[in-house]
Amino acid sequence: MARRWIAPTWGSPDGWEFVTSDVPEPLTGEVTIRVHAAGVNPADYKHVAAERPGLRLPIPIGYEVSGVVTAIGPDTRIVSGDVRVGDEVVAFRVHGGYATELTVAATTVLAKPPTLAHEAAANLLLAGSTASEMLHVTGVSAGDTVVLHGASGAVGVSVLQQARLLGVHVVGTARPSSFDRVRRYGGLPVAYGPGVVERIRDAAPTAIVAALDAVGTDEAVDASLALVTDPAQIVTIAAAQRAAAEGMTAIAGSRPDSAAYRDSVRAELLALAGSGRLEVPVARTYPLAEAREALRLLAEGHPGGKIALLP
């Protein structure tokens, strides 16, 4: 038996339930994982806030976990190769990660680098693969300059680090209290608010070739349109309607092309994190039973790093 969080109705986490359920024995192409840490992401509550086509209630919560393999289906290998009971693994794009144990498709599972803590591993791939795709679709390369809205958030911090590895300059908008965080990961911080376009232009070391929007505010979109000549070079993860109207590029894990790309970079991101070249700052951990409290902190908008749930 396992404990897990489910959404029995559409709405906020206040309506979720922490239930006991059986864990299915893994079939061919599946493995069972005892969860050591579950990643906490805005998508966890946004995707069940209102009715969505193709989803049926109740819905298990959580998309990424880190843990230990407890059972393996017949003739089964994971993405990174052979697997044995007791191996430490990461699973991403799962359903029901807010759990003590779960059975998942082996195509979601990769070996966890031994140097990477479970709390960080469980928070790497959703934000990291999103950040990677934002840079990828712009085609930026060494010496280019981009503007990043929401530079101190989880996706923003991963963008900053991955851009630095590419040799790409990033001017990142943030609140002044987060400037040190932006600088730490290689960005040039500027304050959002009135006058942001001029501040970004003044801070940019070279011409701005692309904008990356991780916040979705009208200010971020309007500033991006003022700074970037080609609207297709403005990539957003949070303003799909504005993107459609303005000719910008919207990406999302629910889109087949985005999902395929994000799956393709999982192993690379794990290798970067395992070698210390990609950090996942973890601000706080909560017991699994206190998932609602963790999400309240996340919803405040500035937790100072990632949050992990510990069964």
What this model shows, in words?
The model has no long low-confidence stretch (mean pLDDT 97). Helix content is 30%, strand content 26%. The chain is built from 11 helices and 16 strands. Strands 3, 5, 6, 7, 8, 15 and 16 form a 7-stranded mixed sheet that branches. Strands 11-10-9-12-13-14 form a 6-stranded parallel sheet, sandwiched between helices. The protein is an alpha/beta fold and 311 residues long. It has helices at 42-46, 118-121, 125-138, 154-166, 179-184, 196-203, 218-227, 240-246, 256-264, 266-274, 291-299, and strands at 2-7, 17-21, 30-39, 59-60, 64-72, 88-92, 101-105, 109-111, 145-149, 169-174, 188-191, 208-213, 234-236, 249-250, 282-287, 306-310.
Mean pLDDT over the full residue set: 97
The helix content, as a percent range, equals: 25-40%
Q: Describe the biggest sheet?
A: 7 strands, mixed
Distance between the termini: 13 Å
Report the total helices.
11
Q: What is the tally of beta strands?
A: 16
